[in-house]
Write a structure and sequence with these properties.
Order of helices and strands of chain A: HEEEEEHHEHHEEHEEHEE
Number of helices of chain A: 7
Oligomer: heterodimer
Number of strands of chain B: 0
Helix content of chain B: 55-70%
Number of strands of chain A: 12
Number of helices of chain B: 5
């Protein structure tokens, strides 16, 4: 995943989550308010019936022989005296919560109304009804649907805004990629011409001093050529599935050590190579060549004069160690990222060597370990 | 023997229960002051039987216009009642019998009792 993709995902998540929290809070307020409203509407109906009931109670009080206890098809009632003792009811009332005027218990709603004058001795009138869950269920459903729609809109909006947000970053990266592409393209031909002509010239020149200068030219040209290879690799971002084959890694490593011999010699570096014979590998030869070249060129670049380079290759791993300037401990984690360099930025390079090594090892599922201590050296080991 | 015992017990109960009927109801019926009306007036004001009893005892022991629940017109016509001649224990019992006798709960009719609610 590229850094811009990561940034986009982070932005979308952050924006979506924070908006969701806000929407949920608003939805909760709305739901609570509407639920109260449903309850209030029911309460009004019950209070209206309670008033009507009280008047009917008066008739029963005055003519108990002629009038029946008032009843309703939807509501049940119970009358209590001033000491909360049940006088009469048309259902079996539960224990009443006298502290509230209206409350819900299980699936029933209870309204308590004070009665005065105390017809039939009634101080408290209880009206009870079964709660209708339909309006509440409908409300819950509506709130959920609206929340889903809003959240979808928020997600789409956050994606759009995120893209706008990272547009400048994307443009910068595109600019850089184009620069690399143009640079590598421009480098290729002149470097090839330089190397070819140096080879041709070296076979003609007999003078030792001139040859020495030619060697230096060759080292410099090869350094540029290696840089060209690395930049090309980054630009094309090699696919591991293409042209993998079994090859002799021991031979390849020896060939690259020979290629860099001029460089070792120019800085008087001692190379101790312990290479097991016939270590075979299944991969893209060019990618592994670039990996080895980057490890060796780093060991050369960040080494001291008269320093040492140790190269170990066996069936389990490839290790390149130097006793150069090392990498500061606070940069050890980030050194594998693109364009991040170690302490000595006066040495050449764009900081892409270890990044390329990381890409290649990751593509093949190899393990990359870097141990380093400032002023003591660096050990890079690739285990497969 | 057993039969005689039962008769004596019933008589005793009847005689004991007659405080309300003998000492209260008779006089009230003679003066055409229905107890039912009195009880309902106390009921509508005091609600609970305990409060009704306390108010009635207070009126019987200290009859006055302020303690009476009768309409003012009634009091002007009949005056305030005399102090009740019953002893305290007898008075309490009589009032209990009155409340029990006229308890309105017994007279309330209902069409349907919802047992499943």
């Amino acid at each position: 995943m590229t850094s811009e993709q990561r940034s986009l995902i982070r932005f979308v998540l952050f924006y979506a989550v924070s908006t969701l929290i806000l929407l949920s809070t608003l939805a909760l307020f709305f739901y609570t308010n509407q639920k109260s409203q449903i309850l209030i509407n029911e309460q009004k109906k019950m209070q209206s019936y309670a008033t009507e009931f009280t008047w009917k109670l008066q008739d029963v009080h005055q003519q108990p022989d002629d009038v029946y206890y008032p009843q309703h098809n939807k509501y049940r009632s119970a009358i209590y005296d001033s000491s909360h003792k049940l006088i009469f009811s048309d259902f079996t009332p539960p224990i009443i919560n006298w502290a509230k005027e209206l409350y819900q218990q299980d699936d029933k709603l209870f309204l308590i109304k004070k009665v005065k004058p105390h017809f039939l001795g009634t101080s408290f009138l209880i009206i009870a009804t079964k709660t209708n869950s339909e309006p509440l269920k409908q409300l819950q459903k509506n709130v959920l649907i609206v929340m889903l729609i809003l959240f979808t809109v928020v997600l789409l909006l956050s994606y759009f805004l995120g893209n706008q947000f990272i547009k400048p970053m994307r443009q910068s990266i595109e600019l850089l990629d184009n620069f690399i592409k143009d640079t590598t393209h421009e480098l290729n031909t002149p470097v090839s011409i330089i190397l070819t002509n140096i080879e041709a010239t070296s076979s003609i020149i007999k003078d030792e001093k001139l040859n020495k200068y030619m060697r230096r030219l060759e080292i410099a040209a090869r350094t540029i050529s290696n840089l060209y290879d690395s930049l090309t690799f980054l630009k094309l971002n090699h696919d591991t599935d293409k042209s993998d084959k079994t090859f002799n890694l021991s031979l390849l490593l020896q060939e690259r050590l020979q290629y860099f011999e001029l460089h070792f010699h120019s800085r008087k570096l001692k190379v101790d190579a312990q290479i097991d014979e016939n270590v075979m590998m299944y991969a893209n030869v060019e990618n592994i060549r670039i990996l080895i070249d980057n490890l060796l060129s780093n060991a050369i670049k960040y080494n001291k004069r008269d320093g040492k380079i140790a190269v170990i290759l066996n069936e389990q791993f490839l290790e390149v160690a130097d006793n150069g300037i090392g990498i500061p401990s606070d940069k050890l984690n980030s050194i594998q990222e693109r364009f991040v360099r170690g302490k000595n930025s006066s040495e050449g390079g764009f900081g892409i060597g270890l990044h390329i090594v990381k890409i290649i090892t990751k593509n093949y599922g190899y393990k990359l370990e870097i141990k380093s201590e400032e002023s003591k050296g660096t050990i890079v080991r690739i285990t497969w | 023997m057993v039969k005689i015992l039962i008769i004596i017990i019933n008589l005793a109960i009847f005689l004991q229960a007659s405080n309300f009927t003998d000492k209260c109801l008779k006089c009230h019926e003679q003066q055409n002051i229905p107890f039912e009306m009195i009880y309902k007036r106390y009921l509508i004001k005091y609600s609970s039987n305990i409060a009704i009893k306390e108010a009635m005892i207070k009126m019987c022991q200290n009859p006055s216009i302020e303690n009476s629940e009768l309409p003012r017109g009634f009091l002007r016509r009949f005056g305030v009642k005399d102090v009740c001649s019953l002893e305290e224990k007898e008075l309490y019992k009589a009032i209990d019998e009155l409340i029990e006798y006229y308890d309105i709960k017994k007279y309330i009719k209902i069409k349907y009792f919802d047992e499943k609610f």
